Amino acid sequence: MIIIDHNNEIHQYLDAVNDGSLALIRLDADSFEIANGISDELVLIHSGAYAGFSRALKAKLNEQRGLIFYLEDSPLACENILFDFKASDDAQSVIQKLENLEEIFKENTILKSQLFSLNKEISTLIGSVETELLRVKKFYEFNTPRRFKDIKGLKIISKYAAGESIGGEFFDIFEGQNKVFLLMSDTSSYLASSSILSLFTAFKMENKINDESNEKLVNEIKLEMQEISSNKKKELDVALLSIIIDLNTYEAEGYVFGDYRIMSSLKLDKLKGIDKNLVNSNVKEGKVSFNFDRAERALFLSPGFNRSWSTLKPDFMVEELLNKGSIKQLDILDEIFFQFKKDRPSGFLPYDASAIMMEVQKNVMLKV
Predict the structure, then answer these.
(1) What does the alpha-carbon distance between residue 78 and residue 128 come to, in Å, rounded to a whole number?
(2) In this structure, how many other beta carbons lie within 10 angstroms of the beta carbon of residue 348?
(3) Which pTM was predicted?
(4) Which among 2, 131, 161, 298 has the fewest CB atoms less than 10 Å away?
(5) Which H helix or E strand runs over 196?
(6) Using one digit for the tens of pLDDT, what is the confidence trace for 183-202?
(7) Which of 58, 62, 65 is nearest to 79 (CA)?
(8) Over the range 215-250, which residues count as b (16 or more CB within 10 Å of their CB) and which as e?
């Protein structure tokens, strides 16, 4: 405990009963004013000395965690006062009070030091976990850079790039009953992304592709996401695209939540996603339908793709590539992701990014 005394009055008052258990460090006002690293110390000040303090010194006192005053007369209007006493107060009781306050401050200082150490350990652990997750993402990206499908007049190619943000994207495509089912998800939680993958795997095993099964899947995902979100302080962000394409008519129906875009070679934007979080939305609100034409190219862009694009602002237009029929689908995706990553030293985008391109063949037979 630091003491700034006046005419040695505090020392004389305490000396009669202090048996050495109370550690006291005497400083004059000038020494205290230039001292550094003492904001966590208790400071016992004589009110007579305080009256002569400079404005700067009084401001410094307001930064202290705790002040105690020995009063000559009336109380002082000063911040952070924990305790004050007068010469007429029982010295033994005052000493006991001062010892208790000093013990509390010592415990708080130890706890603060432990919290700093714990925070450092947690930061190190989180850094290690994030590094490992980025390594896993990079492995996934490297092993599944492109996925090709050629299904009854519909050519499909997709590409994924890993991002540095927490959470992740997932997408998959499968065929059945002369239909194509496409699911894309974007979440702010690895647990949520994993849960969607599990639900979709079970859905694929049932091998039922129709409007009813699609709506059921979206509702199941919503309920699972609400359950996960209820255990978090911050609401979970979940974007979802769940589309069925009929290979007889090339009509598409399904559900879209979040910032998904479908860019078309025939129309600039075939679809913009319903900008709502699936967690707190009515599933029927996300209902969408559209159709594909012969020779049409459609590019499905994920929310992570759009966020990364907005952050990095590449100096070229995707539309220009999409509308040039002489450029192959694969070359378009390769060029887009090359431009995305060329100035990223880490090799990672800000967010996971997924892009799926579909092209309807020129001579495809459409049922009307």
Answers:
(1) 47
(2) 19
(3) 0.61
(4) 131
(5) helix 190-206
(6) 999 998 888 888 898 999 99
(7) 62
(8) bebbebbbebbeebbeeeeeebbbbbbbbbbbbeeb
